[in-house]
Amino acid sequence: MSTILSFTILGLFTGAAYAIAASGLVLTYTTTRVFNIAHGAFGMVLAFTFWDFSQRQGMPTWLALVLVLGVVAPGTGWLIQRFVTRGLGEGPVSVSLVVTVGLFVGLVGLAQYIWPPAPRTLPPFLPDQGLEIGGTYVTAHQVITIVLSAVVALMLYLLLNRTRVGTAMRASVDNPVLLQLFGGKPDRVASLSWAIGISLAALAGILLTPVIGLSYFDLTLLVINAYAAAMLGGLKSLPLTFVGAMGLGVLQSFAVAYLPSEGNLAGLRAVVPALFLFVVIVAMPQAQLRIGQVKGIVSAPLPSFRQSIGWGLALVVLVALLGVTMSDANLLLVGTAATYAMVMLSLVLLTGYGGHVSLAQFTFAGVGALAYAKLDEPNLYGLFLAAAVSAVVGALVALPVLRLTGLYLALSTLAFGVLMDKMVFQADFAFGYNGTLHAERLSVLGRSFDSTGGYVLVMTVFFVLMALVLLLLRRGVLGRVLIAMRDSPAACGTLGLDMRWFRVALFALSAGMAGLAGGLFAGLRGTIGAADFQLFNSLPLLLLAVVCGVTSVTGAALGGVGLMLLPVLQSSRPELAGLVFVVLGFGAVALGRDPNGLANQLFALGRALERRFGDRVRAVVPVLPLPGHRADAGEDNAVPLRRLAGDDLEVVLEEQEVGAHVAARG
Amino acid sequence: MSLLEVDDVVVQFGGVTAVDHAGFAAEAGRITGLIGPNGAGKTTCFNVISGLQKPSHGTVRFDGRNVTRLPVNRRSRRGMGRTFQRLEAFGSLTVRDNVRVARDIHRGLRGLVRPAGADVDGLLERVGIASYADERADSIPTGTARLLELARCLACDPALLLLDEPSSGLDESETGAFGQLLAELAGEGRGILMVEHDMDLVMSVCDDIHVLDFGAVIASGPPALIRSDATVQQAYLGYSDGDDGDDAGDDGDDDVTRTDLPAVETTMTIPAVPAVHS
Fold first, then answer.
1. Are the beta carbons of B15 and A167 separated by less than 8 Å?
2. Domain-embedded: residue A290
């Protein structure tokens, strides 16, 4: 009996902390329509700040608490609303997701940079004090947390129901335009709710830290628990959010108490929030389509099919030359870049064309790699089967959110990533705990590619083929429908398009592409493990894809090279490890509004060069020039890769040229 | 039986009642106007009719069937088409591709196999925007984009057209041509329900008019009747015309003046109320 009681109290304690975090999340989302993926990351950074104030600098606890909750956190929230997320709620959900994922990665990087890994402890409030309830000892910290959650609930109730600004907040939940029409000030409402929201994230982080420790990732992933709770209230209702949070806390606590800690079900305990989320999402009512969003993204120009083939061949020739001149270690890096580029191609389809965001695209690559290794059929049949498995899994992830909007799809991919990370990939039937699997290299039509150079060439061919298919698709009816769905789902609905199944198919296709990349990657590496496909790898992948240009094949190629260079850079300058993510994260924050990314800057450069030198070059060079002659060998890591990027630049030039021709004819 | 029947619909946003027990109808082959001051709930009504907004109460019947619970796309398949006040053109596609994609969607799987061709240009011709065919939809003028939305809508051959402020952004001669086009479309047997602020256009082309104020229908009838209705004048101008002073007072709404509202930018152009033209 007392065990049940003690686990219930433990559950109520964590539930209370979740409730505090979740109510902040709901507040910011409902008033500004920006779902803050980085909510937990803010809680993490501010918990570190609190530690810094109270432990490192030795301030009294109350002063540190007042400073963090009353000054730093609301100030951060205000700044973020004012300069980062303002106006994002009006735009497509993919942009606000990418921007907050940027914040997420940036904040994790920032914490790692300011507070490098070291053992740190934060004592609970009023240590050594507590009381007995029914034979169970309850610490003062637990009591304080539960009481604070009640105080937060009460304050929010009073704020929303008894004050003018609260009424405006509630009105902006339903219809911000109408609020403005009736004289409300949505901007002030938004700033206030972000200030409160971030403070609540900080409070939750500070309360949980003595229990789960000062960890970059555990506190950051708190967001999943928070939004699982918030989802029960439909991201709207605060009372239901509190109920959800308490329920989730208790459920999680009971899972720890009563589920087996060994065997295949061991991982279940860690994924309770993710499972909870899936259940709530499946039970949610049909979402309504939004109208009146800002849209009409300037898409990257489409190259003609012939030009695409030409530049694809050029890329293959370049990699073939690299293959005979580079060391195996460097070729492995090129192969890795090709893998990343292929996964990013799957994002070009999903995000660039379709306007949906997957936060766990690398997990799908992992599914493909796992299937490929397990099938042990190192040929085209095995590879395509692995891709098909991945596609089916992708469809299964998209199915529960069939009736909901893009935000929920993205959130369920995050939950899916956690689920795979903690429960599936590490299980005995998969890679095993800290285990690896062996994968054979692919043989095509009976011909095997044992040399790394040859295999990387095969990967490049696959990249080029996938890119060609993608561009072909974009030109056809399906491509037009995809763009239409991205630009205005509401208009597509009123034209009679049933977007639900279309979306599932799109998601499956994208997951299949990622799975194919994963299968090829498994063959490249020979041994693969769960660590290769961690959820956290998917976020920088998404960010780099957007920064480099998620609307074009060129952007995917650039992004692949960039993502491969990140760890290289980190290992050569370890002191910059966190900073790289800060730059990447905040770069995505800055560039996230333009999904055409750096590729588009290159397109512009290409346009300028074309105007300046186009005629002279064409006079000397025959049709379809191959840039292979530039591909002399490099001595170190960076040089050949820069060459690779240089080649992309030329692809860009060519695309521009076609664009110009089309424009001229039009 | 009317083509479209809206019955006792209520929509609430938090504490604000945007549509308050509104009921009206639109007939096949006729042009019906839906007018009212800004914030009266006209677009919300459109959203309820087309399925983008769930009403808290009330029913929508279309072509004799209750469609209140049908999703947007199924209503479209039954023959409902709409345009948007805040434009929803596919900005990154060309004008031609906007209509083409609508046609392909409408034709379902057949559209996937054999994409639409020449008939698309015919539609652009018909609404008078053929010269913009190759421009991106986010680069054309607002008025043209509204016509594009109409063309896109027509690509699905709807029985009922819901047009949300279709003429704003058009100049005088374009509006004239547009009125003619509307009459033609109604002549083909299509029902047209139109939210419109250009009173000249409304009064000249509409067969019936419903007036919304504070979410409720305060008057319904042919243009001539609406023009002389005291309640309508009250809602629009905050006072009723002296000539009709004796009519005022038989409606409770007369006590409510618009002066209690915060300043709202109004784009309404109402001709002098005791009108000169028929």
1. yes
2. no
